[in-house]
């Protein structure tokens, strides 16, 4: 029997909406790309994006910045994190997260990951006395029990910054991701849920933190021109104390983002349909562990993860190679060397860490792939068939 092959492109991005194109052209024709190069009577594209995003998130304040990683560092700096301070964060996350902590001269304290791919709340509770800030990464869209997490952090006096690079539009118990902690941070890098190439967004209800973040982002004294910033009084108290660390968003990126916000719900529904198609196709595959999702979680999954728990390295590699040969490119968090976007805490030599054996076990078996909207539901079913066949083949040959 001939084997089925998949010919789609896993690094595919989608074209931007036509309104984004028109808005970008208008910015280019005006020449006003800098956010403070405003037309006399009209708010800038960046201010309008901030207003729209604050409204979307149900937040008092929003700030647009140059990248997701910059947003994280700005949130930490506004909270007073400085050189030598410890910051709790996920052992399972993407490199910009510990990178944001390190950029302040602060020190990440890694909290383990569970088999459900969320932060280990027991490990968090055990380490709660070590820091006064948690930079919480909802890595790959998996959301921990936020009610329990916030109870642990509130009891320990820990401020929570949510890294929602993968949970823009997702909810826990009906509350939007990014609205549980004191600050929510988002990325609009091309492989996230909205795409401006590079970009970041921050939301908070805290006027002092918002004022600090606006000043930190490089506002000079133009803060009154922001679309979703606190009133001038909030700035009076802090404007002499905040360094101007340029990381503003420009009008071109904001112009292409605003129309995407209007399409976000439809796009999230599209990703979830693809996620469920892959999930259904993989269910029941021997040796393959699916990540079961709690009922309180309204996820948005633009990628898919599964576990080959306790498989030896050669067997995992046989699955990756078998799938790769059939056009299904899988990423592996257990690989000895960091590759592409994928690395794990042991690769970040600038950050010392204790051994996390339960985390190592999960990461050693963790397989990951993107789910571009360009894939059809039939594509997703085909991808799942290929993975299932390859896993079954390798699992079978291991038992002989
Ligand atoms: C993408 C990403 C970020 C932010 O990255 P930028 O490329 O700086 O926008 C932060 N956290 C996670 C988990 C990410 O995937």
Describe the structure.
The protein has helices spanning 18-30, 45-57, 68-78, 96-103, 121-127, 146-156, 207-216, 232-236, 251-282, 313-325, 357-364, 377-399; strands at 61-65, 86-90, 107-111, 133-137, 159-163, 171-172, 175-176, 183-187, 200-204, 289-290, 297-298, 303-307, 331-332, 366-370. It has 400 residues and is an alpha/beta fold. The chain folds into 2 domains: 18-262, Type I PLP-dependent aspartate aminotransferase-like (Major domain) (Aspartate Aminotransferase, domain 2, 3-Layer(aba) Sandwich), CATH 3.40.640; 264-399, Aspartate Aminotransferase, domain 1 (Alpha-Beta Complex), CATH 3.90.1150. The strands form 3 sheets. It has a 7-stranded mixed sheet, sandwiched between helices. Helix 2 (45-57) runs parallel beside helix 9 and helix 9 packs across helix 12 (377-399). It is globular. It comes from Sinisalibacter lacisalsi. InterPro entries: DegT/StrS_aminotransferase, PyrdxlP-dep_Trfase, PyrdxlP-dep_Trfase_major. This is Aminotransferase DegT.
């Amino acid at each position: 029997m001939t084997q089925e092959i998949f010919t789609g492109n896993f690094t595919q991005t989608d074209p931007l909406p036509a309104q984004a194109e028109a808005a970008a052209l208008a910015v280019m024709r005006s020449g006003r790309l800098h956010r403070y190069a405003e037309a006399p009577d009209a708010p800038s594209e960046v201010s309008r994006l901030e207003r729209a995003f604050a409204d979307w998130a149900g937040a008092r304040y929003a700030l647009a910045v140059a990248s997701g990683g910059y947003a994280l560092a700005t949130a930490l700096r506004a909270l007073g994190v400085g050189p030598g301070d410890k910051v709790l964060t996920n052992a399972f996350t993407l490199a910009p997260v510990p990178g944001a902590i390190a950029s302040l001269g602060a020190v990440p304290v890694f909290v383990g990951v569970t088999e459900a791919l969320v932060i280990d709340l027991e490990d968090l509770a055990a380490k709660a006395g070590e820091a006064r800030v948690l930079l919480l990464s909802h890595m790959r869209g998996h959301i921990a029990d936020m009610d329990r997490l916030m109870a642990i952090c509130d009891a320990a006096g820990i401020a929570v910054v949510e890294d929602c690079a993968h949970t823009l539009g997702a909810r826990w118990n009906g509350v939007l991701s990014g609205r549980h902690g004191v600050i929510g941070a988002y990325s609009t890098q091309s492989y996230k849920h909205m795409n401006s190439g590079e970009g970041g967004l921050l939301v908070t209800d805290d006027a002092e933190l918002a004022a600090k973040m606006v000043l930190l982002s490089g506002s000079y004294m133009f803060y009154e021109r922001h679309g979703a910033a606190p009133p001038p009084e909030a700035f009076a108290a802090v404007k002499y104390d905040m360094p101007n660390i340029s990381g503003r968003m420009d009008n071109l990126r904001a112009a292409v983002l605003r129309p995407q916000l209007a399409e976000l719900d439809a796009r999230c529904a599209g990703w979830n349909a693809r996620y469920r198609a892959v999930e259904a196709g993989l269910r029941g595959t021997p040796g393959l562990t699916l990540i079961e999702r709690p009922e309180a979680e309204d996820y948005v999954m633009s990628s898919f993860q599964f576990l080959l728990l306790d498989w030896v390295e050669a067997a995992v590699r046989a699955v990756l190679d078998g799938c790769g040969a059939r056009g299904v490119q899988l990423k592996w968090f257990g690989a000895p060397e960091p590759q592409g976007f994928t690395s794990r805490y042991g690769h970040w030599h600038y950050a010392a860490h204790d051994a996390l054996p339960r985390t190592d076990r999960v990461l050693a078996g963790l397989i990951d792939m993107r789910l571009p909207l360009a894939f059809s539901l039939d594509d997703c079913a085909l991808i799942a068939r290929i993975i299932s066949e390859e896993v079954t083949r390798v699992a079978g040959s291991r038992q002989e």
